[in-house]
Amino acid sequence: MKFAVIVFPGSNCDADMANALRDVCHCAVELVPATATTLTGYDAVVLPGGFSYGDYLRSGAIARFAPVMAAVQAFATAGKPVVGICNGFQILTEAGLLPGALRANRSSQFICQASRLHVCNPHTQFTTAYAKQPDIQLPIAHGEGNYYCDAATLADLREHQQIVFEYVDNPNGSVANIAGIVNRQGNVLGMMPHPERAVEQLLGSIDGLGLFTSLIENHREETHV
Amino acid sequence: MYLVKVTVTYKESILDPKGEAINDALQRLGYHNVQSVELGKYFELQVAKSDRPIAEQVNEMCDRLLANVNMETYHYEITEMRTQA
Fold this sequence. Notes:
The complex is a heterodimer of chains A (225) and B (85).
Chain A: E1 2-7, H1 14-24, E2 28-33, E3 44-47, H2 68-77, E4 82-85, H3 87-94, E5 101-103, E6 111-119, E7 135-142, E8 146-148, H4 151-159, E9 163-167, E10 178-182, E11 188-191, H5 209-224
Parallel strand pairs in A: 1-2, 1-3, 3-4, 4-11
Antiparallel strand pairs in A: 5-8, 6-7, 6-9, 9-10, 10-11
Chain B: E1 2-10, H1 17-28, E2 41-47, H2 54-66, E3 72-80
Antiparallel strand pairs in B: 1-2, 1-3
């Protein structure tokens, strides 16, 4: 399975993501600059965390119009897996690939800590490995992770099981404790916590590994059918 | 040439923690009659005339980039600038 990790000016979790995918999960990974115009040849695309374009205007607002984003849109529309972590989640909401928006944390503070999460939907291609272990702990590190959507959108998310990760102790004020969601089709995932920072015992937790192994395993099954 | 002044603020239903922090600071300074503070963004654009109606273009730019209409609202003021002969 071959991953593209998109590198925007100001991305800073791209190397961690490449480490998780290449060194820990033994997948092919390429760092793809935001100026790229095609994503042909990749099986999955990851938008990593960071502060793309300095978070100017709003987090993700400028990155959403980077040249590569037309290819990301097409990739997502084709039903292929797209994962946005932290700033990547913010970019996906700005791009309209996921509903809602990320506001400043309720406390006005940048929060960097371990966060307990509940995997509410272990049936997505990103979460099957968590079926037997739905309670996990992943690092969060964000100033604008306070998920917002209106009541109609929230009802819609619930109806279609699109809420994938929930905070156990809501750290940032997110609506309905939401930490991560998928789109209706289930191929685009956005989440504020950082699974790529929890893939080796050395890092203090391996709870993030399940996300990558789920994706890899489900892709393997799909291509062998 | 037009001068376009755009103000973007959170929708009323959206909490504004930065505005609240500023309000707290004003209270600490003794301005107890301050009832609320809302922090927004202000943009000034100079836009050359084109075939398109200016208001239509400004609306589009606000919807696409300057505001996130999921959580923000905007208003603007358009004035024609006097160009030097």
